[in-house]
Amino acid sequence: MFVTAPIASITVTLILYLLQGVVLGLSTSIPVYLKRAGASWKQQGHYSLAHYPFSIKLIWAPVIDVFYIQRLGRRQTWLLPVQACLGVALIALSFYIESFIDGLQVILLTILVFIVLFFTATQDICVDGWALNLFASTNVVWQSTSQTIGQTFGRFLGSSFLLTFRSANFTNEYIRQPLSIPPADTGLFTLAQFVRFWGIAFLVVTCIVAFVYRQRPSNENNNDIGPRLKLFEIYLSILKILRKKCMLELAFILLVSPFGYAATYFLTNLALINNGMSEATLGLITMPIIFVKILVPLILSQTHRPLIWFTRLYPPRLIISVVIGVYVFFTPQLIKYPRVFYSVLITLFIINETIIYLQLVARVGFYAQVSDPRIGGTYMTLVSTLGNIGQTVSNSAVTYAADWLPKQHSYSIEVAACTIIGIIFLLMTWRMMHRLQQIPSHKWYLTQENGRPVETNTQELLATRGTEKI
């Protein structure tokens, strides 16, 4: 049975991106629990290695695009088994996650989460491609919209929701007591129950997709632009793209720019936990950010100079990072006035997330402008992978470096050091980023057809942008 109505396509992609977002949110919440269990910065650095699958998925993305079973379709050949493996991996993780965290068995935990995120990154490749097929006859922008809403809400469930409602103190005071329910030693659920629930959800959704949502093999290539490249040609095209001077400069920007605000972005929540804030409180103060993540991407979606906006937003992001760093440093003194402290902290978080997501939209918009339409999916995966590498490497760098610094002041020292790096980076690349924005799109292409630039369908390329870790 084929379900091709637009509302059905929107529903299935929203659910798939939501499941993906839950896993990503969970992976970013685990460091909070490790910190509460007494993990050192070095151990946090070990765990950060679990996030690398999204930085290296370009290695196997072409394989998924080229090899498939005709009867199942290009995307579902991989999507169904990957989703099933992901569900099984989450269920397996649920039996060990709490003991690994409490016992600080970080290496084993990192290996299991790495496996889960490997399947998640592979699922992301499949869902991105399948969503394009589902919306090819209507409007491919629905793919981008479904990803933004579904993944954002999923991240919310895997982070803020989990941190808040797993807390026994919060649920006893604000849920059980008003409902006259006896207090308990746990929240609404344990971490193991939360992970196991979503593992089962993956398996259920996989069965539904397998029997209800079927990809029509005859239509799967309708949205391709030009002849499909062979596997060897795709890898060769990646190497040729990387040899371009403009791409090398863009790669430098994507790899180095995250270091300017890495300490604030990756260590702030851990620093707040270190200063005595509970997981439930941290979850509550980050809840308003979900609205920012959904609404902000609409602001720059139509800009014609996205890299210029990315450049202009870099100084404000450095400034707000310093302000947050200073504010967190004085947390022990300011928290004596909770209403004022939390109001200001939430405001700072909202401003920071607004700038982060404006930069994200600007960066992805620039990817869409410069991507060669005949290998748009590969091109977009390449540049998004470079961005992910910058994020994950900077994450590992700041967490490992914190272990070498005085424990009490490691966060503040790293915020200062990262800001200096950011200022130096901005002075080095300000003109470079403006110049890259001025380069005609066809100069970024692998080749040209008949000596003329190939026209770019920006909407389709934006929809194929893939997932960047934020």
From TrEMBL:
GO biological process: acetyl-CoA transmembrane transport
Protein name stated in the entry: Acetyl-coenzyme A transporter 1
Highest taxon of source: Eukaryota
Transmembrane segments: 6-34, 54-72, 78-97, 104-122, 195-213, 246-268, 280-301, 313-335, 341-362, 374-391, 411-430
Cellular localization per UniProt: Membrane
Species, as recorded: Adineta ricciae (Rotifer)
One term of GO molecular function: acetyl-CoA transmembrane transporter activity
Membrane listed as a keyword: yes
Cellular compartments per GO CC: membrane
InterPro entries in UniProt: AcetylCoA_trans_1-like, AmpG_permease/AT-1, MFS_trans_sf
